[in-house]
Amino acid sequence: MGKLNRDEKYILHGEYYIFVLLGIYTLMVGVLVPYIREEYGISYDLSGFLISANSIGMIAMNLIASYTAILFGLKRAYMLQHALVIIGLVVVTLSGNPFLLVLGMAFIGLARGSTSNYSNQIVNDITKSDSRAMNLAGVFFALGACIAPFIMLLSSDYAGNWKYASYWVSAAAASGLIITLFMKLGKETANAGVEKRGDLSFFKRKRYWVTLVSLFCYTGMEISIIGWLVTFFIEVQNTTTQFASGMATLLWASQLVGRFVCSLIANRTTAAKFVFYLSIGMTAFLLLFVCEIGLTLQIVATIGLGLFMSGIYSTILASAGPIFSEYKLAFGYFFMFSGLGPVILPAVVGFIAERQGIQVGIRALIVTAVALPIISYINTRLDKKVQTES
């Protein structure tokens, strides 16, 4: 922080607040689905597609964001995402019409995509791909994810209507728009170090594809777990909606703790190795989670998942950070292709759950979970090769 000027510090602090909002937007999707299913009586298939529609919107905006920032300016493009959240949340509360539900979720996904793209890119460029700073951004993201279930519970238990949560989050999005308005997002910040704006030769980099596939696997599992966790506890463990929402909060509280720890120790090893270690722990606890165990062990597995999931996303981005700084369009394509994971896996879980139950649907994630440490290990070998050549 000492190396940043006043404007850069304001931007970084503002981005950390926006990461809190991003965490709220992300978890709101999974928390909203059980309430939507209960009120409108929609099927598992449609529920899974709502989660996937959110991810589809996120992917679309990830690709569009790279070009719109260049054509119209980062600040104008960035401010649009705050408006998209408000529109999406309001649409979701209007009716149980499947088209409107899908449209609203897609709008929220569009906002998530632009926020994830721009915010990660800005923090990455300002801090020069610092793993600690990227993981600290993850801490604020997890903080927002912890807040989201409480917003929902306060709305349903005290305000008497879960739809009030949409209005409160919309107000928070408006505050994010105001903060962004005063950011000086010029070439000296968000575009620093970018020399190859339209060059697509990053597609030839092996490390680009390895880190991309790693993020594909991780985000697909993360969104699937987040999106189906509440439903899993309600229907497999026969808990109340309030208890299941509390488990979602516990997952993100664990991630909050884990990401804070990761921000302290991330620079003690390479980003590639750190992802490898975390992915092994995440896989082990997911295997425990899907076993037929008692509620107590299920809670322990949830905590373990949160702790080891915590630093994977940010550290993968830090591992690929130098490529993002060198190639302007690399960030958008990276999120577009890796974003197929959150589209495909939740829908697969919903498809299987509709036919064999939610527990079997969640177990389908084991295949991807086992693949992640293998891919992460390949990244460590590529990282070692680069260091040797240097």
Please tell me what the overall shape is: globular
Work out the oligomeric state of the chains in this entry.
Answer: single chain
What can be said about the biggest beta sheet?
none
Rg, please?
20 Å
* Unreliable stretches: 188-197
Mean pLDDT: 80
CATH topology: Growth Hormone, Chain: A
- One letter per element, helices H and strands E, the order comes to HHHHHHHHHHHHHHH
CATH class: Mainly Alpha
Report on the structure:
With 390 residues, this protein is mostly helical. It has one domain: Growth Hormone, Chain: A (Up-down Bundle). It contains 15 helices and no strands. Helix 8 packs parallel to helix 10 (295-309). The longest helix is centred in the first third of the chain and has 35 residues, at 6-40. Mean pLDDT is 80; it is low at 188-197.
Task: Give the gist of this structure.
This protein has helices at 6-40, 44-72, 74-94, 98-126, 131-157, 164-181, 206-235, 241-265, 271-289, 295-309, 312-326, 330-338, 340-356, 358-363, 366-389. With 390 residues, the protein is mainly alpha-helical.
Topology overview:
Layout lengths: L5 H35 L3 H29 L1 H21 L3 H29 L4 H27 L6 H18 L24 H30 L5 H25 L5 H19 L5 H15 L2 H15 L3 H9 L1 H17 L1 H6 L2 H24 L1
Helix pairs in contact: 1-2, 1-4, 1-5, 1-6, 1-7, 2-3, 2-4, 2-12, 2-13, 3-4, 3-6, 4-11, 5-6, 5-8, 5-11, 7-8, 7-11, 7-12, 7-13, 7-15, 8-10, 9-10, 9-11, 9-15
Provide key terms for this protein:
0% strand; mainly alpha; Growth Hormone, Chain: A; 390 residues
